[in-house]
Amino acid sequence: MSPMPGKKRMEPRGRIAVVGGGVAGATIALYLSEIGLEVTLFEKGPSLVSGPPMCHLHAGGNLYREISDAQCVTLLRESIDLIRFYPDAMDYRPTVIAVPTDDAGSPRELFGRLALLRGVYDDLVREDPANRVLGESADYYRCYDRGRVEALRALPSPKYPASMDEWMIPVAKHIDLEKVQFPLIMVQEYGLNMFRLASSVTLALQQKNNCRLLLNREVTGLERGRDACTLRYRHDGMEHEAAFDFIVNAAGFRTGELDDMLGFARERFVEFKSAYVTRWEGCEETWPEVIFYGERGTPKGMAQFTPYPGGFFQLHGMTKAITLFDDGLVKSSAQSAQPRLKPKFLEKIEKGWSQSEVEKRSHSAIRHLSQFIPAFGSAEVASKPLYGAQQIPGRDATLRAADVSFEGERYARCEIVKASSVLSVADAITRRLIELGLADESAYGRRDFATVRALDDEAIGRQAATLGLERDYPVALTRRTVATA
Ligand SMILES: Cc1cc2nc3c(=O)[nH]c(=O)nc-3n(C[C@H](O)[C@H](O)[C@H](O)COP(=O)(O)OP(=O)(O)OC[C@H]3O[C@@H](n4cnc5c(N)ncnc54)[C@H](O)[C@@H]3O)c2cc1C
User: Of 159, 165, 310, 366, whose CB neighbour count within 10 A is largest?
Assistant: First the structure.
């Protein structure tokens, strides 16, 4: 294409453009460059993986009672894949699930699914011993009746828990045992540290000569041609354009904006949510994550207690006063594939929160958790919240395992709801590129890449801490609960 008048022309050195450097776009760009393709990654912000937060690796989907067993199995498989791909981004600590006394459900309703997941994990380990990343399959979950929990109360909390029982000690000591049903269930769903993930993928991409990482570049237009797509982007106030053979739309909750540029219809939801960062002064114990189930959207919505070192805790509460918002869930329309969030949410995303709202919602979150952990009532607000909007493709707002869809031959859109689905997306795009003759057949399903695994743990930690400070979060959030797996 000829240069646009008054605009700089960039010669296409990459044949594949990935738009959006969240966990999806950054991982896909890394994957495609690992299999030898020329990739250009456009991210409008100054760093990678800075969109909506993530703290939990859903290795079995046990946070969600309402989703199908099939989605849970998918999340388990994908999470194992992700741990193997980004081993240094994981926080290797388990999750405890508690069903409140006043909840209509019972822990026993979870047993069938847990046994199914343990069986699937066992099969995966038999298929390939390298899949044993969640410990022994027999320990995928364990139930704790009241007597066992009361016995653990008497023991000292270890700084470095070495067994499931040791991880359970702080829970046994601090939760109000009258407020929960028994058994409590401990499951090997680990933490996912977004700062360490951002750091890992950034350091890995910096080593790939065949991936151009273009930060601070906003894609403003896409136009389909016969064999190529013209992409326009803005940088430093200048408009540029370039031609690509294949476009990967990984623009997160703005995926519909790119669909609209190309005239593709698509149904999806976008939801704005947030989590709160708090500090429990004097807490020196090493906690697992703890989930207190509850009905989403009601004042008793699920409470999630996510630990970081130094007494820092990230809190979710699935109520409209905490994580969810009135009008926070919006749908695409017949006219546009992009659901329209109210300006008050876009303003939060682009400009931040008022201090009074940070205080109000963070304190609501502290109160919500302290119903179950009374001593946590003394916690303080530690920073601004972690927040953002995410897309959910289709018509079912409870969908949690989703990956990618295609339009025509040369356009893919990533539609992950959970970070663990990114490698499924990379595989599906690779399949399409093979069909188009842009990648070799041998590229499909590959995982034997050395770049991420060769990264130095300390370098990942340093870069993660820098990102945390740049984004104005406590450095504790960039660290693992315990130093090693
Ligand atoms: C409160 C909250 C908690 C969550 N917790 C978890 C969790 O514990 N575990 C989990 O797995 N998931 C969690 N999620 C979901 C998870 O955050 C998202 O699924 C994930 O971030 C989506 O990644 P993505 O790369 O698709 O999109 P994003 O992370 O949104 O990335 C999209 C990127 O595209 C860029 N972009 C957009 N438009 C353009 C353009 N025109 N040009 C250039 N760049 C553009 C954006 O700047 C952004 O960096 C949570 C979500 C929320 C809101």
Answer: 366
Local structure of 367: helix, strand or coil: helix
Residue 483 has pLDDT above 80, yes or no: no
First to last CA, the chain: 52
Q: What is the mean pLDDT of residues 434-460?
A: 94
Distances (CA, A) of 60 to 84, 174, 223, 319, 353: 16, 26, 40, 23, 33
What integer is the mean pLDDT of 296-324? 97
Q: H or E element: which one contains 118?
A: helix 111-127
> How much is the pLDDT for 482?
84
State if residue 23 touches ligand 1 by the CB under 6 angstroms criterion: yes
Neighbours of 117 (CB within 10 A): 26
Question: Does the residue 388 lie in any domain?
Answer: yes
Please indicate whether residue 254, judged by its CB atom, sits closer than 6 Å to ligand 1: yes
Domain boundary among 329, 360, 393: 393
Is the same domain home to 293 and 400? no
Q: Is the CB of 100 under 6 A from ligand 1?
A: no
My answer on whether 296 and 400 are in the same domain is no
Q: Do 253 and 270 meet the contact criterion of CB atoms below 8 Å apart?
A: yes
